[in-house]
């Protein structure tokens, strides 16, 4: 299970001064209220015993992750593709006016480009694609906390825009395959199920098949029958080894 948590309230009092100009605004720290919000969120029972905390590279998310790490005694990993929505998908920072107008258009179209028109701003499908690519690397983890951003969470989960330090659950296995950035198809899933049934002798292998395809996609593999079989055999062999060692 994935537990998205939006960063706490941010202190933008130094915006457009010193280093906090242009893209530098993303270096802004949490406000005192934001720190308190995250500490309160850390008391949520769902977060206890998580395997890892992933964080966006922006300061407000990293500080959120660090507070959670201290409170919960869980390690942090920074994942650069967990950044917030981009006003320019070519990684060119736009001025405040362009950014505001682009976001208004994003909201108005629900994150979709107008028919027949491609915009410079990042659409919701692209956000979800890059986020799933990151999360699929952790598909073997039981519980993952992700400290990140509102638009990113909304685009990935399809839920309402979250409040500061709000926690939203996301089932990766149920959501990642059919919306996969690696374009796995129903045929690939059927092939994987047949292969796993052949290898294991079991019929109920659907969830395992999804996990195998996610691993292949995360490693940049193709979905040929030979590749699926090779990954499945390697995964099952490693799983048996871990069971024996325990």
From TrEMBL:
Pfam families: His_Phos_1 (PF00300). PANTHER family: ADENOSYLCOBALAMIN_ALPHA-RIBAZOLE PHOSPHATASE, BROAD-SPECIFICITY PHOSPHATASE YOR283W-RELATED. It comes from Fusobacterium necrophorum BL. This is Histidine phosphatase family protein. GO terms for molecular function: phosphatase activity. InterPro entries: His_Pase_superF_clade-1 (IPR013078), His_PPase_superfam (IPR029033), PGM_Phosphatase (IPR050275). GO terms for cellular component: cytoplasm. Gene3D superfamilies: Phosphoglycerate mutase-like.
């Amino acid at each position: 299970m994935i537990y998205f948590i939006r960063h706490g309230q941010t202190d933008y009092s130094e915006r457009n001064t010193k280093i906090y100009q242009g893209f530098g605004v993303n270096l802004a720290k949490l406000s005192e209220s934001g720190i308190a919000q995250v500490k309160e969120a850390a008391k949520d029972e769902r977060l206890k015993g998580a395997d890892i905390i992933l964080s966006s590279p922006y300061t407000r998310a990293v500080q959120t992750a660090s507070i959670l790490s201290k409170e919960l005694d869980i390690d942090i990993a920074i994942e650069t593709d967990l950044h917030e929505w981009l006003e320019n998908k070519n990684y060119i920072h736009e001025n405040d006016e362009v950014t505001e107008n682009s976001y208004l258009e994003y909201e108005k179209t629900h994150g979709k480009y107008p028919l027949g028109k491609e915009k410079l701003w990042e659409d919701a499908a692209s956000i979800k694609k890059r986020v799933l690519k990151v999360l699929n690397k952790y598909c073997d983890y039981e519980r993952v906390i992700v400290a990140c951003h509102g638009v990113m969470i909304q685009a990935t989960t399809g839920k309402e825009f979250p409040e500061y330090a709000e926690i939203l659950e996301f089932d990766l296995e149920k959501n990642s395959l059919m919306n996969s950035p690696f374009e796995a198809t129903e045929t690939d899933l059927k092939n994987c199920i047949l292969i796993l049934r052949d290898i294991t002798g079991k019929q109920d292998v659907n969830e395992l098949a999804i996990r195998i395809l996610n691993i292949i996609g995360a490693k940049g593999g193709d979905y040929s029958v030979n590749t699926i079989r090779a990954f499945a055999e390697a995964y099952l062999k490693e799983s048996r080894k871990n069971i024996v060692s325990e």
